[in-house]
Amino acid sequence: MNSGNIVIKGIRQGLLVTLGDDDWDRALSSLESQLGENPAFFHGGRVALDVGGRAVSHTQIERVRSMLARDQVEMWALLSDNPDTQSAARELGLVTELTSSRRPGRGSARSSGQEDVKGPCAEAIVVRRTLRSGQSVRHPGHIVIIGDVNPGAEVVAGGDILVWGRARGLVHAGALGDEAAVICALDLAPTQLRIGGHIARSPEERPSQLMPEKASVRDGQIVAVPWPGE
Amino acid sequence: MAAERAGAKVVTVTSGKGGVGKTTLTANLGVALAMRGQRVVVVDADVGLRNLDVMLGLENRIVYDLVDVIQERCRLRQALVRHKHLSKLFLLPAAQTHDKTAVQVEDMVAICDELAKQHDVILIDSPAGIEWGFRYALAPATEVLIVTNPEVPAARDADRVIGLIEAEEKGPARLVINRIKPKLVERGDMLSIADVVELLAIELIGVVPEDQDVLIAANRGQPLAMAQDSSRAGHAFHDIARRMLGEEVPFQPLQDPGVFERFLRFISLERS
């Protein structure tokens, strides 16, 4: 997603928001309008903010943090090349590096695929693991999960969602307002399914024969059909 | 197989949800392993809410505790309480008068490193929850046992905890399903073993049937595993201990072998 010089993409730890070259006030107001236009996408998310080389003061950081907090978005990291900005962020208890999260191995090998995707071409990310309760993936483009989405896990995509496994948690496609987005899963039985502004629950009765299904919005309602089918 | 810390296994027993049987499992595994000749220390990491000492019947022998060791009021060896009947089993009790902020991750790691020099297995009984107590109980682990009951809330919390353990790159985490009631499973009123294993997708190391003797034993301070063959649950604890030591032990039928064998076949298919 790229508008008003702001680039947003999904990373392992949540969303990475990179402010462009605009001056601080303009960058902030375009971030604010992004938040206002797409509450469903941001709500409850965690954001790492990349401010580039800007010198950003304590007060400015506090202001952007509380602006995000108003929309239920937690800012947990502030990335910058500027040493003064970094130390201000650290004093406020923010993380200033993304790489420190994990040593290379199982965890980060998977996420590197996500982080390599840059800028406006950040169309799809692939998550090659099962999302367990309490874990979430958010990305403005499409999301492919190779694994299960367990109950209590969340997947929120601006575009489509494909789960090569069981989808049992909360799955939200088209969270930036795209009502044409689809959700496909080998076993589609999410706790809740959302496309754009529509919300549906899975039927209480599970069909005895499991089959892949595709959900989309038709005539203002979410419907799931066998996939492939028709 | 799992890594070891200075030659010893450090096994953290955890669950997320409270009341699923972590402390019971820790006490009984400690007993079962010690009966098999292992030098065992069970560590009560539930600072402020200790009860591993009570289950082992050692409450009145405690002089020093974990926090005394950390705050250097005594040496580690002075705080270890030897079991009444099993000379190879020791308890490192939790403090009752402090809270969990008295323990740091580095303290637990240092204590386990020290214990590992003299013992074969260190079992850490983690507090419930995913907060601080869980963090320091997990830090020194070379293996993790996840305890759950065949109920949706317990399984959900176990899933959450497994996610956190994977993120910390701890493990391998193996699963103990505690308090299964075969009759309820048969009637479809309880999650089956296969349901739980399907959701959690980690290796199953033990299934403990519901047994009221477990509770009676806990009240008496005499873990059921002390008498290995007197009960199904006691037997199940010994089977877990043997599997921890690398033995191949077939799963015991819970009740009706026909039903249980179907589950097992399902589980082994899952793993292959």
Written overview of the protein:
The complex is a heterodimer of chains A (230) and B (272). Chain A has 230 residues and is an alpha/beta fold. Chain A folds into two domains: 2-101, ACT domain (Alpha-Beta Plaits), CATH 3.30.70.260; 123-226, Pectate Lyase C-like, CATH 2.160.20. Helix content of chain A is 22%, strand content 33%. Chain A has five helices and 16 strands. Chain A starts with a strand and ends with a strand. Chain B has 272 residues and is of the alpha/beta class. Chain B has one domain (9-271): P-loop containing nucleotide triphosphate hydrolases (Rossmann fold, 3-Layer(aba) Sandwich). Chain B is built from twelve helices and eight strands. Chain B is globular and about 55 Å long. The interface between A and B is medium-sized, with 15 and 12 residues.
List the main descriptive attributes of the protein structure presented here.
heterodimer; A: 230 residues; alpha/beta; Alpha-Beta Plaits; Pectate Lyase C-like; 2 domains; six-stranded mixed beta sheet; 5 helices; 22% helix; B: 272 residues; Rossmann fold; eight-stranded mixed beta sheet; 12 helices; 8 strands; 42% helix
Give a quick summary of the entry.
The complex is a heterodimer of chains A (230) and B (272). With 230 residues, chain A is of the alpha/beta class.
CATH superfamily of chain B: P-loop containing nucleotide triphosphate hydrolases
- Please give the largest β-sheet of chain B: 8 strands, mixed
CATH topology of chain B: Rossmann fold
What is the percent of helical residues of chain B? 40-55%
| Count of DSSP H/I helices of chain B | 12
For the largest interface, the chains and their residue counts are: A-B, 15 and 12 residues
Order of helices and strands of chain A: EEEHHEHEHHEEEEEEEEEEE
Mean pLDDT of chain B: 89
Strand residue percentage of chain B: 15-25%
Number of domains of chain A: 2
Whole-number radius of gyration of chain B?
18 Å
Output the structural class of chain A. alpha/beta
